[in-house]
Amino acid sequence: MRIPIKDESGIAGMRLAGRVSAQVLRDVAAMVSPGVTLIELDNYARDRIAHYGGKSAFLGYGGFPRQICISVNDVVIHGIADSTRLVLGDIVSLDVGVWYQGYIGDNAATVAAGGCSAEAQELMDVTEMSLKKGIAQARAGNRVSDISRAVQNWVETHGCSVVKEFVGHGVGRRLHEEPQVPNFVDGGHSPVLHPGMTLAIEPMVNRGKAAVKVLKDGWTTVTRDGSLSAHFEHTVLITDGEPEILTWPD
User: DSSP secondary-structure letter at 85?
Assistant: First the structure.
C-alpha cells in the first residue's frame, strides 16, 4: 500500500481545494429549504463550483451523473438529484467534492429542510460529533484504526450504527487514494499516520441498523430498515501537531 505524502506545494494545493469545496458546501446548504427540488440544488452547486473556478470531482466519476451527491432521509450516500421536492422535516446529506488547480477537496454535511424531528436532530448531532472525535485522533504516530475506533465508539454508545460497506479514504490529486479510513475497527492491518497525509474522514451513521442496500441505479444507497441516515465529512491534513481541517470555507 502506497499512501501519498504531500510536500509543501501539495499541501498548499490541498488547502485551496479544501477551501473551495467547503465554500460550495456552505452555499448549497444555505439553499436547503422546503419546496426546493434536488435538481435545483445540484444546478446551484454546478454554478457555485464554476463561480469559484473549480470542477466537480464527482460528475462522471465512475459514471456518476450529477455535480454533487444529495441524499435525503433514509438515503445514506450517493443520492442522485432529481425533481423530488423537499418538505419540512427532511434531512439532506450534501456530499461535495471539488477539483481545483490539480487537487480535490471533499466534504459533506447533513442539514434539515426548515427544521426536523428531535430524533433526526439527535442523529445529526451524534454523527457530527463522531467526526470530531475521529479527527481528534488524526495525529502523526497514531493509526487509522484510532480514528475508526473513536468514531465507532461514539456512535454505538449513542444507540446508532455505523455503515460498514462504505468508508473514508485518502484524497489528493485523485478522489480516492490510500488509505481507506473505516468508521469501525475491522481487526485488519492499520497504517500509521504520518505528516503530509490528507484524509477524507466521513462517518455515515444510521439511526437504526447498519445494513444498507444499493438501488437499481447502481448508486443510491439506502438503509435496509428505512431508518434515517446522516453523513458528515472533512478533508484533514496530518501534521506534526494538531490535525488541520482543510475544508473550512474561511
Answer: B
Grid cell in block for residue 189:
492491518
d(CA 92, CA 86) in angstroms, rounded, equals 9
pLDDT tens-place string over residues 36-71: 999 999 999 999 999 999 999 999 999 999 999 999
Q: What is the number of H-type helices and E-type strands within the chain?
A: 4, 15
**What is the set of domains in the chain, with CATH numbers?**
8-245 (3.90.230.10)
pTM (whole model) above 0.85 = yes
133: left (phi over 0), alpha (psi -120 to 50) or beta: alpha
Cα–Cα–Cα angle for 63, 93, 28, nearest 5°? 85
211/5 Cα distance (integer angstroms): 34
Predicted local distance difference test score (pLDDT) of residue 225: 98
What is the per-residue pLDDT for 187? Answer: 79
Q: How many alpha carbons lie under 13 Å from residue 188 in its C-beta half-sphere?
A: 9
Grid cell in block for residue 100: 481545483
